[in-house]
Design goal:
Elements lengths: L8 E6 L7 E8 L3 E8 L2 E6 L11 E5 L4 H12 L3 E6 L2 H13 L4 E5 L8 H11 L5 E4 L14 H12 L1 H17 L2 E4 L12
Parallel strand pairs: 5-6, 5-8, 6-7, 8-9
Antiparallel strand pairs: 1-4, 2-3, 3-4
Length: 203
């Protein structure tokens, strides 16, 4: 059972909502603080029982798939809370655009082009991150793709492999690359899935 108490502080963050014009989310945010998030169109209103402006000051976060959508919103939100954010995405232009937004708002950030499905890219990506900051303390595994194929179809096996390479193995590659940092900083890992994980594919 969770009791929600009135919030004392509010922040507003941009977010592209793909699920509807007015959604209510209840989630945990950093060190057990309860947060209620209301999504209206392209804007998020977050109510929390603590000021978020400097909540993550001194933390270094990596967000994958941060070039657009929920990954972009996560990166912007972490930066608004004071974290230094490494914006990772397969799309270099997308990661650079998100990083530019963070810099324009006064945040410290790094754009990293990283195909998480390719384990050979992890070393260069982490080296770039470590030149930016010595240790990572927050990892948001947001990168993922959506693709569907019916059992028995000609492209079923290749589609399965492509999705698993990114959504499952890719997440593992990133955790493996940064786990030493996260152990040292006693950091946090947030793995993001979607409703597709609970709904069978309908061809």
């Amino acid at each position: 059972r969770l009791t929600i108490r009135p919030a004392r502080h509010y922040i507003r963050l941009p977010l592209h909502s793909i699920l509807g014009d007015d959604l209510l989310h209840l989630c945990a945010f950093s060190r057990g603080t309860a947060v209620v998030v209301v999504v209206r169109g392209d804007e998020v209103m977050t109510a929390a029982n603590a000021s978020l402006a400097h909540l993550l000051a001194g933390e270094v976060a990596v967000v994958t798939g941060a070039g657009r959508g929920n990954g972009r919103a996560s990166a912007l939100g972490l930066a608004a809370a004071g974290a230094q954010v490494c914006v990772a995405d397969l799309d270099a232009a997308g990661s650079a655009a998100t990083a530019a937004e963070i810099e324009a708002a006064g945040g410290r950030t790094l754009a990293v082009a990283w195909n998480i499905a390719d384990p050979a890219q992890a070393g260069a990506a982490v080296a770039a991150i470590h030149r930016f900051a010595p240790r990572v303390s927050v990892l948001v595994n947001n990168a993922g793709i959506e693709a569907g194929a019916s059992v028995g179809s000609a492209d079923y096996a290749s589609t399965w492999r492509r999705v698993m390479d990114v959504n499952l193995d890719g997440t593992m590659h990133v955790i493996q690359a940064l786990v030493a940092d996260l152990r040292e900083t006693r950091g946090s890992i947030v793995n993001i899935s979607s409703m597709v994980a609970m709904i069978g594919y309908q061809p």
